[in-house]
Amino acid sequence: MLEGLLQLPTWGYITLGLILTQITIASVTIYLHRHQAHNALELHPVISHFFRFWLWLTTGMNTREWVAVHRKHHAKCETPDDPHSPVVEGLGKILFTGVWFYHKAAQDQETLERYGKGTPDDVMQRHLYNRFPLLGILLMLAIDTVLFGWIGAIIWVVQIGWIPFWAAGVINGIGHFWGYRNYENQDASTNIIPFGLFIGGEELHNNHHGHASSARLSHKWYELDLGWMYIQTLQFFGLAKVKKVAPRSQLIKDKTSIDLETVRAVVRNRFHIMKLYAKQVILPTVREARKGQSSQIQGLLRRARKLMSREDITLDSVGEATIRQARQHSSNLNTVFEFKQRLKLLWQQSATNHARRLDALQVWCLEAEKSGISYLQEFAQSLRGYSLKTA
């Protein structure tokens, strides 16, 4: 039996495997994702190069390729040009062959040139990592085998398969198919679970799409982002510096005037605002409209509620007809849907024209409060209290 230089108990090998894969996960989420792709933090050169070296050993991934594919995913999300959308390709394909979709996109030179700017291009990158991507993986196999024998080879297989399945498969697949949503983005992203431990915080995928440039992926008090804990530790020792985090809003009690601070808070948290609108206005309005209706009309209104609430749904002719018919059955539902569409226009106005946005929000709240629909009135009153937290 082939044995290595080091012998460990069974629990020791399992612990070692988890530690090694967690280092790889940290390298992906901290270095490739939050640092390189989104520029959400700065890393000390030593730490940055360690992550790059470790990824060469355990994945063979090229920084420029990964960054380019990921940036294109954000730019073209849930469209035929998205490198890995389960909405387009189907969950099964992305979950089990997501790595193939990644490699296909990474070979597209137009994608690399357009989305891969700003990534490392030093001597090591050009003459080692780019030229010999498989050498690092083979070197890792040799190290594992020499140290731990045949069990080391098993550990190596786990290391090599970890990112292709969990990142390329689970995050890109399930993370756009199943879970809960804090933000009503114009994509299908979801938070798989609120405890981002197993894949370094990447489980909080809807949060990331809501605020892509944030170094912290946990946005609720009950959410836990292991990657953010790593970043805070690095920052404590002067090895990282956080540049961007998701803006945090607060509701100020008894605030009745709408000012520029209100506009900034509402616009910066627009995806969350749309989520709240769906929950606090559209949902109860549909519930009231269903009362006393036939089972057929109740079914129509139930289908319309989902279409009216989800921003990631691209309406076809059937969907448009469903909403149109539902609006005809309820004047209140027709009104709250129109107000939702008007609120969305606020984000589309030029960010440089603050006065226009301020006027638009003031008019929207004033007319909503005069609508006679209690859910809409209460929502408009709550918008007046929005402000950005100063700390």
In words, what does this structure look like?
The protein has two domains: 10-242, no CATH class; 250-388, no CATH class. Helix content is 64%, strand content 4%. The chain has helices spanning 10-37, 45-58, 63-75, 86-89, 91-106, 109-115, 123-129, 133-173, 205-210, 226-236, 260-268, 270-290, 295-309, 317-329, 331-348, 354-369, 374-384, and strands at residues 41-43, 195-196, 224-225, 240-242, 249-251, 386-388. The strands form three sheets. Strands 1-4 form a two-stranded antiparallel sheet. The protein has a two-stranded parallel ribbon with strand order 2-3. β2 (195-196), α9 (205-210) and β3 form a beta-alpha-beta unit. α5 (91-106) runs antiparallel to α8 (133-173), α14 packs across α15 (331-348) and α16 packs antiparallel against α17. The model has no long low-confidence stretch (mean pLDDT 93).
Question: What does the secondary structure layout of this molecule look like, with pairings?
Answer:
Layout: H1 10-37, E1 41-43, H2 45-58, H3 63-75, H4 86-89, H5 91-106, H6 109-115, H7 123-129, H8 133-173, E2 195-196, H9 205-210, E3 224-225, H10 226-236, E4 240-242, E5 249-251, H11 260-268, H12 270-290, H13 295-309, H14 317-329, H15 331-348, H16 354-369, H17 374-384, E6 386-388
Parallel strand pairs: 2-3
Antiparallel strand pairs: 1-4, 5-6
Helix pairs in contact: 1-2, 1-3, 1-8, 2-8, 3-6, 5-8, 12-13, 12-15, 13-14, 14-15, 15-16, 16-17
